[in-house]
Amino acid sequence: MNSLYFLRGPLLAGRAVGFGFINASKFTANNPSFPLSRLPLRFRRALSSISASDEEAFARAAALNADSETPTIFDKIIAKEIPSTIVYEDEKVLAFRDISPQAPVHVLVIPKLRDGLTQLGKADQRHGEILGHLLYAAKIVAEKEGIIDGFRVVINSGPSACQSVYHLHLHVLGGRQMKWPAG
């Protein structure tokens, strides 16, 4: 069985919401029929605080569809089918706020055209221009967000790095002191 199931119980502030099993594969970012933004806020918050082992399981489940041509949640954001808070946009990239920020500033920068670039590990020489443009766009985002004096750019590539959306994306993080080592 390729599905991951969670036991759903009381989620917030002692409010009982009932018990039942939730098929977590329905909630992956690669599932076009059920984007995360449609989940109730309390459930999105619960998902954002999952343990590292659950995060690893989500990444493994997402990897099963990594090379499919199925539109990702990011494709739907580019098409404006799913709302997002856009920070920067040009003809090649889109930058928007992460719905589960890990720092005071957490912006995702994505190429508008996936072109087989589902993860950095799949990059070819032909992707060189867009990869450079993504980094330049990350710098513009840092300037716009007032964090140019200190920010981090992260790319998760593959299930071992807990990549959960198979559309290459950069995380621009800042607004607080970063720690080392990262990860």
Can you offer a commentary on this structure?
There is one protein chain. The chain contains 4 helices and 7 strands. The protein is α+β, with helices and mostly antiparallel strands and 183 residues long. The strands form 2 sheets. A 5-stranded antiparallel sheet has the order 3-4-5-7-6, covered by helices on one side. Strands 1-2 form a two-stranded antiparallel ribbon. The relative contact order is 0.15. Mean pLDDT is 79; it is low at 1-35 and 42-46.
Write a brief structural summary:
The protein has four helices and seven strands; from the N terminus they run ββαααβββαββ.
Keywords:
23% helix; 7 strands; 183 residues; 4 helices
Q: How many beta-strand segments?
A: 7
Q: What is the topology, as strand order, of the major beta sheet?
A: 3-4-5-7-6
Span between termini: 30 Å
Give me the number of helical elements: 4
Percentage of residues in strands: 15-25%
How does the major sheet shape up? 5 strands, antiparallel
Oligomeric form of this entry? single chain
> Fraction of residues in helices?
10-25%
- Taking pLDDT < 50 over at least 5 consecutive residues as the criterion, the unreliable ranges are 1-35, 42-46
Task: List the topology elements.
Layout: E1 5-8, E2 20-23, H1 41-48, H2 52-63, H3 73-78, E3 86-89, E4 93-97, E5 105-111, H4 128-144, E6 151-154, E7 170-174
Antiparallel strand pairs: 1-2, 3-4, 4-5, 5-7, 6-7
